[in-house]
Write a structure and sequence with these properties.
Distance between the termini: 107 Å
Strand order of the largest sheet: 1-3-2
Bound molecules: zinc ion
Number of strands: 3
Shape: elongated
Structural class: mainly alpha
Largest sheet: 3 strands, mixed
Radius of gyration: 25 Å
């Protein structure tokens, strides 16, 4: 019998699944793979934190400065005063493995960040909006609080992981790659870490001033402002809880600990005018 080749029908290369279902499966599959990799990397950060004790970290980063900040002059009165307040607060945390230092980043944005090794960076935008020592002391105290649980490294690691993921997904190594260290550090502090840092920061303020009056005034001004230009500069609220929540937290912590919410606030004196 003569062999008659059969024409293939046109369905051989067509999957039995609906194309949308296939696409969906692919996206979910990739999503799971990414989630697993992200979780593994975050777990590695925890391991690294375990093997690099805070003392070692403080040593490794003792002179380190993030590349993307523009510091003010070393004798800028704002820097000297901020450092003085920071050192006074740090005295109430004598067991700290860090030697805290501060730099002021010349930027109109309002922000404060904790970097590896005990370096706290505050923007000049924030410094210029601060009215009293007590306000600034709380902002600084909060950042010191992050070092106690080493949140700053966790947040930074997590930020790094997510930026890498984004890079892989978008395949774009130019546009979104400007994920600077500063950006990385900001992401990822959880609500719990934030409220722990608030508690410790407020405790430092209480120890230094004998009351916590005025420490929330900065947040009140942020909450009250309707100045859009000012609101655009508020990086601080993108990386910290909302001002209203902060005020509530502070009052609540103070009441719980019987820390006076009234007392004489210390006007800020930026030192001799140039
Ligand atoms: Zn924080």
């Amino acid at each position: 019998m003569e062999y008659v080749p059969r024409e293939p029908d046109h369905s051989v290369n067509v999957s039995k699944e609906h194309p949308l279902v296939e696409a969906g499966t692919l996206v979910i599959g990739l999503g799971i793979i990414f989630a697993v990799i992200a979780a593994a990397l975050i777990f590695l950060i925890e391991i690294a934190l375990f093997f690099v004790p805070a003392e070692k970290e403080a040593q490794m980063f003792s002179y380190w400065l993030p590349e993307d900040i523009t510091t003010v002059a070393y004798d800028d009165p704002r820097l000297l005063k901020t450092d003085e307040i920071l050192q006074r607060l740090a005295r109430h945390y004598p067991e700290s493995p860090y030697e805290f230092r501060v730099e002021i980043d010349n930027s109109p944005q309002l922000n404060a960040m904790a970097f590896p090794g005990g370096l706290i960076v505050v923007t000049s935008g924030l410094i210029d909006k601060v009215d009293t020592e007590n306000e600034l002391a709380f902002v600084l105290g909060h950042e010191i609080g992050h070092y106690r649980n080493r949140d700053h490294l966790r947040a930074m690691g997590r930020g790094l992981v997510f930026s890498l993921m984004l890079l892989v997904i978008s395949g774009d190594d130019s546009a979104n790659y400007g994920a600077t260290i500063a950006d990385l550090t900001l992401k990822g502090a959880s609500r719990r870490q934030e409220s722990d840092a608030d508690l410790f920061g407020l405790e430092l303020v209480q120890s230094e001033y004998g009351h916590v009056a005025g420490s929330w005034r900065f947040f009140e001004r942020i909450a009250e402002t309707e100045d859009d230009e000012f609101l655009d500069l508020l990086d601080y609220t993108a990386t910290h809880p909302s001002p209203d929540d902060r005020i509530e937290t502070i009052i609540e912590i103070a009441n719980r600990n019987n820390w006076p919410v009234e007392g004489a606030v210390t006007p800020i004196d930026w030192g001799p005018a140039e």
